[in-house]
Structures are given as C-alpha cells and as structure tokens.
Design goal:
The chain has about 190 residues and is of the alpha/beta class. Helix content is about 25%, strand content about 25%. The strands form three sheets. It has a six-stranded mixed beta sheet with strand order 1-2-3-4-5-6. Bound molecules: zinc ion.
Length: about 190
C-alpha cells in the first residue's frame, strides 16, 4: 500500500487502495494527488470530529461520492445531531466561527470492525470517539491519538484533549499493535523498529 500525505490544517492521507483518511484538505488538493497516482477514492475515514480533521468532509463527499466511515460515538456529532464536547473556551469560540457542514456517516464502526482490510481501533481520550485505522503494519493514529514530537510518538496536546488519562491508555493500546509506521494527524510519519 502506498500512502500519500496531503498537508493542510492537519494531515490527510490518501492510500493507493482508495481510502482517504481525514478531511482537513480541500477537495481540489485531494483530487490532484488521486489523479497523479490513478486512485479511485471509495472511502473517507474520519478519525475524530475536530474541525481541522473534518472541515472539508461535506465538499469531499459531494464531489467524490465516497462512503463516510466514522466511529459510533463520533457519528452523531459528524452528522450534526449532537454538539461536540469542548475542552476550553477558546475551542468553543473556534467551533462557533468554523461551523462545519455535517455529513451523513455511511458506516458506523465499532472497535475492531474491519473495512477494506483496515481495522478500526477505538482510541478515546483526545475526543471520546477518536479512532485509529490499522492495516499491514501501518497505523493511522486516530488523528491526534498519537502525534509526532521530535520523530517519536507523543500523546495529544493536553489543552485540546478531553481526558488525558484515557488518552495515555489509548496511546499504549495503539503502540501495543507494534506498527511499523505511524501516520499522525499532525507532524511527520513516525518509523518504528519492531
Ligand atoms: Zn483533534
């Protein structure tokens, strides 16, 4: 599997098997990469509801007609049926100014469900339904469930994390999968020797 990084407010990833992970990049930037590599995008996997990971979901789905995949606890927020929990006043203000158009979630995954060979792994803490996706030793780390810091895996930033203790447990859970490489929501890919 080849993985292409599309950088914007957060990292979105496009894989050669037609999966887009997260929707922080504009559809034009995504289709450019897809065209270059002859990729037909069939799925949009959402790791968590934060605006930098979902901002362009609506425009992407409209243009590409791909199926949206998200965890059960995040789905009602992504669909606009429930208000997200915020960790700070700053975040509440940001969410007011950056209202996201909701999208309907076609496949609501449970912990351990497999879609197109990708195993959904619940990694709560940063948000209650943060979800990582794992395939062939490659871990898409639930957006912010693991971030890159100095080339090493690090927990998400405290000020944007709802339950830090839970986030630390989720990071351990993800690392226990012994991924070869981690693609985080922010920062550079992390190579691990297993
Ligand atoms: Zn986040």
């Amino acid at each position: 599997m080849e993985v292409y990084i599309i950088k914007s407010m957060s990292n979105s990833y496009l894989t050669s098997d037609g999966v887009l992970i997260d929707a922080g990049a504009r559809v034009t930037d995504i289709t450019k990469v897809a065209r270059e590599h002859g990729i037909d995008i069939k799925y949009l996997f959402i790791t968590h509801y934060h605006v930098d990971h979902t901002r362009y979901a609506h425009e992407i789905v409209k243009a590409l007609n791909c199926k949206v995949v998200a965890s059960i606890p995040e789905s009602s927020i992504i669909e606009g049926k429930e208000k997200p929990k915020t960790t700070s006043l700053l975040q509440s203000i940001i969410s007011i100014f950056m209202r996201i158009k909701p999208v309907s979630v076609d496949i609501k995954v449970n912990d351990g469900d497999i879609i197109e060979g990708y195993k959904a792994i619940y990694a709560p803490g940063h948000t209650p339904g943060s979800t990582a996706y794992f395939k062939d030793g490659i871990l898409f780390s639930g957006g912010d469930a693991i971030v890159e810091h100095g080339g090493k895996p690090a927990p998400p930033p405290r000020e944007f994390t709802i339950n830090m203790e839970e986030a630390m447990r989720s990071m351990d859970k993800l690392l226990s999968l012994r991924p070869r490489i981690i693609y985080p929501g922010h920062g550079k890919p992390i190579s691990l020797s297993t």
